[in-house]
Amino acid sequence: QVRVIESGGGLVQAGGSLRLSCAVSDRTSSTYTMAWFRQALGKEREVVAAISSSGEITYYADSNKGRFTISRDNAENLMYLEMSSLKPEDTAVYFCAATPVLDAPTYIFKRLDDYYYWGQGTQVTVSS
Question: Which helix (H) or strand (E) segment is 97 a member of?
Fold first, then answer.
């Protein structure tokens, strides 16, 4: 059973920064396309950023461009989300998602249904 575990959430003031980490238990996770999603209270889960298995291709939701950076370390089976200039509207539970892809190092998936493995989420709260 593949486990996905997020860490790094917390409380931060507006304008501050946080770094989220995602660990995947599968040593073949370098073949996974991965993404960060978030879900604010009373809202639907939405994609924040996604990264191809090779790390070459990334995608950002318009609301995050220029503020968030997604990256991965395939040697360590880790993925990161660097968040800066945080706003109160960034407050949400942030989820790491992963799905294996074969022979597709540049594929990006943006939909919830495209991802097979999910973490339990980590709370990010941005105070005004």
Answer: strand 92-100
3-state secondary structure of 112: helix
Cα diameter, the chain? 45
Tens-digit pLDDT profile for residues 42-53: 999 999 999 999
Pairing of the two strands 122-127 and 10-13: parallel
How many angstroms separate the Cα of 106 from the Cα of each of 2, 32, 35, 56, 109? 22, 10, 13, 7, 10
Assign 37 to helix, strand or coil. Answer: strand
Residues 61 and 68: their CA atoms lie apart, in Å, by 10
**Spatial CB neighbours of 9, under 8 Å, sequence gap ≥ 6:** 18, 20, 93, 94, 122, 123, 124
